[in-house]
């Protein structure tokens, strides 16, 4: 999870970009922060999806094999 300070800085740079534009240094900072944010989001989404169990209307576990394989691999590593 990205810190509140970094998220606030992303928003600050975005607002400044729309209003007055960014310096070269600020644009690089914005790109770096956005990359960090996206990586954090992707990791969080992957963890969420890996913990989901899909149940059909009859009550059968129909979780995709790919997700089950990822869970099994993680269990073996721990």
From TrEMBL:
<feature type="compositionally biased region" description="Basic and acidic residues">
    <location>
        <begin position="1"/>
        <end position="21"/>
    </location>
</feature>
<keyword id="KW-0963">Cytoplasm</keyword>
<dbReference type="Pfam" id="PF05979">
    <property type="entry name" value="DUF896"/>
</dbReference>
<dbReference type="InterPro" id="IPR009242">
    <property type="entry name" value="DUF896"/>
</dbReference>
<feature type="region of interest" description="Disordered">
    <location>
        <begin position="56"/>
        <end position="78"/>
    </location>
</feature>
<feature type="region of interest" description="Disordered">
    <location>
        <begin position="1"/>
        <end position="30"/>
    </location>
</feature>
<protein>
    <recommendedName>
        <fullName>UPF0291 protein D0466_18620</fullName>
    </recommendedName>
</protein>
<dbReference type="GO" id="GO:0005737">
    <property type="term" value="C:cytoplasm"/>
</dbReference>
<feature type="compositionally biased region" description="Basic and acidic residues">
    <location>
        <begin position="63"/>
        <end position="72"/>
    </location>
</feature>
<comment type="similarity">
    <text>Belongs to the UPF0291 family.</text>
</comment>
């Amino acid at each position: 999870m990205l810190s509140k300070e970094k998220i606030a800085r992303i928003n600050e740079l975005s607002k400044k970009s729309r209003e007055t534009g960014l310096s070269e240094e600020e644009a690089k900072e914005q790109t770096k922060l956005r990359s960090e944010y996206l990586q954090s989001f992707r990791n969080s989404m992957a963890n969420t999806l890996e913990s989901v169990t899909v149940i059909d209307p009859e009550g059968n576990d129909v979780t995709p094999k790919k997700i089950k394989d990822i869970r099994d691999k993680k269990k073996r590593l721990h």
